[in-house]
Amino acid sequence: MPRHRIILNTLGMMLLCNITYAMSNDYDIIITKSKQELAVIKGDHTVKQFHIAIGKGGNGTKREQGDKKTPIGIYKIIEFKNDSQFHYFMQIDYPNLLDAWYGYKNNVISADEFKKIAVAYKTSQKPPQDTKLGGYIGIHGIGHQDDQQLQIHNGFNWTNGCIALTNEQIMELKQYVAIGTKVIIRE
Description:
This protein is α+β, with helices and mostly antiparallel strands and 187 residues long. The chain is 31% helix and 22% strand. The chain has one domain (3-186): L,D-transpeptidase catalytic domain-like. The protein has helices spanning 3-22, 97-105, 111-122, 147-155, 167-174; strands at residues 28-32, 37-42, 45-51, 73-81, 89-92, 138-140, 163-164, 182-186. An eight-stranded mixed sheet has the order 3-2-1-8-4-5-6-7, sandwiched between helices. A hairpin with a 7-residue loop joins strand 4 and strand 5.
């Protein structure tokens, strides 16, 4: 069987495993970049909506480290950090298997890096964060919050690829989120 077909078969099986795992939580998060909106969803009901700031890299999905774009796809929450410089940080499992596939196909990452991401994805572990795809993408607060920071947050997309809320909003969002919560990011 050709190498690309094996990788695509693996990709399909791993995406199915991840979607099944993530669906075990009560709430989902849907981020719509074009509306600068984060919605907390339970079933068909929108529980809460927040204004967000996203990556200053513009439209499209994250393809490599330093492009300052917010990724597009289906992810899950994999870690929480209380001591973040941005007040509170909820890390997603970027790069996911689809990100890795495009990275491999476009010669951004090696076959070995693709395999490491695939294994992490299959075993619900944190994917490598140090490839040319970038890493440490998540949902966070502002950090030091004053009137000027709030004006910037409300008026501009200012992150390097993450999704930002105010400090109060990230703490409110925290009550709906657990490890494994599905995060759908769309344009």
